[in-house]
Fold:
Amino acid sequence: MSRNMSRRAFLGRSAAFGTGLTIVNSGVLQAGNSPNEKLNIAVIGVAGRGGANLNDVRSENIVALCDVNSRNLAKAAEQFPQAQTYKDWRKCLDQKGLDAVVCSTTDHTHAFINIWAMNRGLHVYCEKPLANSVEEANMVRQTYLKNRNKIATQMGTQIHAADNYRRMVELIRGGAIGTPMDVRVWCSRMPEGGDYLPEVKPVPDWLDWDLWLGPAPYHPFNPGYLGGCLAWNRFWDFGGGQIGDMGSHMMDMAYWGFDLALPTTCKAEGSPLSTDTCPQWLTAEWDHPANDWRPAVKAYWYDGGKKPGMPSEAFDREKLFKGALFKGDKGWLLCDYDLRILMPKGDMTHYASPKADDLIPPSPGHHNEWIIGCKTGKPTLCNFDYAGALIEANMLALAAYRVGQKLEWDSKSLKAANCPEADKYIRRTYRDGWTLNG
Structure:
C-alpha cells in the first residue's frame, strides 16, 4: 500500500464529507440556495428516538408531525402547534410544501417511508437501520442513487460525527497499521429469544395497532411489542436483532475505516434457528473486494457474548462490551466510540503523522450535517449510498444464518448465485395494500 495514496486519496475525500459520495447539485435543492432558508420538515415518529431527532431539527420549520400513538402525537403538537398532525405516514407525505422528512418509526417501516419520501423528491433523515431486509436496503440505496442530485440523506448513526471516529480513520488510512487485512467488530448485548407474543385485549384507544403493524404480517396486539427498539427488533417481522440494531452503529466504524462497500460473499452462524425471533448470538464473515488503495479484506461480526480473539497487547481490553479491532500487516487498532489504542508491530518508522491539511474536519453535528446538505448540496457522510450498502450486508448475514450456507453474493441481481433457497430471506412478504416502492 502506498502511504501517500492512502493519506491523500482517503483523507482528502473524507474531508469533503465522505468517500465515494456524489456532491449534490445545490441549484436544484428544494430549499433553494440560501443556507438561511428554513426547511419545512415532517417528523414521522415523535417519541423516544423520534423525540430526540425532533429536538435536533427544531431550528427548522416543523410543519407536520406523525405518530400512531395519539398520546405521543399530542405532546409533540403542544411544542409545535402550527404543525399539521397525522397518524398515517402515507397521508403525511402528501402534505403540500414539504422539503424534508425525519423518520424515527419502528424498523419494519423505515424502508417504506424512506423510499416513498425520496420518490416525492424529499430529503430524508432516517434512524438506523435503513431497512429490515436485503431487498429493502438495496431499494433504499438505489432510490437514493436515482435522486442524489436532488436530495440529501442521512442515516441516524449519530456517533459518526464524533471526533474519535475521525482520528480512527486518519490512522488507518494514513498507514498506521500498514496494509489492511481484516476488521473484527462486536457488541456483547444478548437479546431474548422466544415466540411472538400472545394477544392482549383491548387495544388501547390511543394506539392505532393496524398502522403500527403497517406492512408486517398480522400479529395480535401485545404491549410487549412497544417500548423501544429492544422490545420489537428481536422479532423477524419487526426488526433485525442485534446486527440490525447495534450492527448499524458498530459496523459503521468498519465501513468508514476500511472504505468498505458491498461484499462478494457472506456466511454466518448463530443460536438455534427460531421461526419467530432473531438469533440470540450471531457471528458473521464477509469478503470485500480490493479498491484503489487497499487489497481485498475480510470483515467479521460477533454479538450475544461472542468476541474475537485479541492480540496480547490488548489483553486488558478483552472485557470491552463493544468495539472494533482493525488488523494490518504492521499492527492493530482497537476502537470504540471514544477509544482508540494503536498496537504496532515493531517501530513506527512506516508511519508519518498527518499534516494539518490531511485531518478530517470536525463535524457540525450529525443532524446539522444533513440540514446543511439539504440547503447547500454539501455531501453527507452517512448518506443512503454508504449506509444502504452497510445495511444490505448486515441483512445478508441474517439470510446466510437462516439458510446455514455461505452465500456468493451478487447485489446487482439481488441473488446468491450458489443458494437459490436464500431468496425467501432476501425479501419480506407484506400485507395486502402495502407497497414498498410507492
